[in-house]
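Fresh eyes needed here. Have a critical look at this protein's tokenised backbone.
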Amino acid sequence: AVKAGVLRAAEAGARRPAICVAQGLPSADEVADADYSRWVEVALLAALDASYVTLVVREHRQSTGTTELEKLESIDLVAMDGSVPADELDRAVQRASAIETGRRLAVDMGYGDAQRMTPYNCALAIRDAVKGVSGITYEETKDLDVIKREYPLLYNSARASFSEPSTWPCVVKLEYRSPAPAEVQEHLYLVGKGVTYDTGGITLKIGAAMRGMSRDKLGACGVAGFALATALVQERRVNLSCILAFERNSIGPNALLPDEVVVSRAGVRVLINDTDAEGRLVMTDPVAECRERIMAARAQGDSKPAAIYTAATLTGHVIRAYGWYGATVANGPARKGGFDRRLAVSGLAYGDPFENSIMR
């Protein structure tokens, strides 16, 4: 409703709309997963989404000398009759601002066209976004020999892209550390699928199935945005380790072939049946690395809870089951620990439904 109202105001010529808050924020003892319990942030995020202009359009406007890069100049938030204390309103604004900053990084990359957001350009965008943000560090791996040794499945999936250096694969690592180590309750390991364009490889996508495959990197883009937002709010209860695997699944003389057998980082032999199932190839070796790091931490006496999440546009399952909603597919231990339920709870609180699927 807020987005529709802001868009209508913008169409009428408004450049500085105001959102009026007419009731108090939810109290701490309200049900944690109540729908829209973060309704102030939801309203702000909706208004910011209404103002958003894609990276491709913004850069075109800049190139033509257009100064209006957003639909709005500002958004005012007004608490009617003191319904919300100023400090609570400030915290809501700060959270919404951090989330929106992370979201914009994700969508700028994810919806940037395939040539604008190559693997290296995605890495550059992330590096620039996190530069100077407290608590977060950036590392990239571009050397093909290193990728071949450390991430052999990613390397082989990306082989057809080696003929053009601008489309070579790369791996980005983001580390976030809480400003209060004693308050950390868990360490999350996040692996993102960053296929900047997916032709399907030798198992070529036919007809119109290739249209939109520049968005096959949104898993990695979302992880980058989440890490940035976490750092901006200076979350005290969690540490993050993120591995983002970027590649272009191209087609060419050196492309990966069905019937090949490739050995993974973990030493497992992988038979290739379908080169259009590249998402699991680009993420498997980073997942193995995360497991190695967790086991090494355990050996050194670190007993903090840890979990590995993968984020990917594995749309075949989700669209068939749920349409355009996101979904978790949890394994047994994750389901037992309620990790999938936690995402659903957060989705309800922020008005962004997230479905829980089950591996069968």
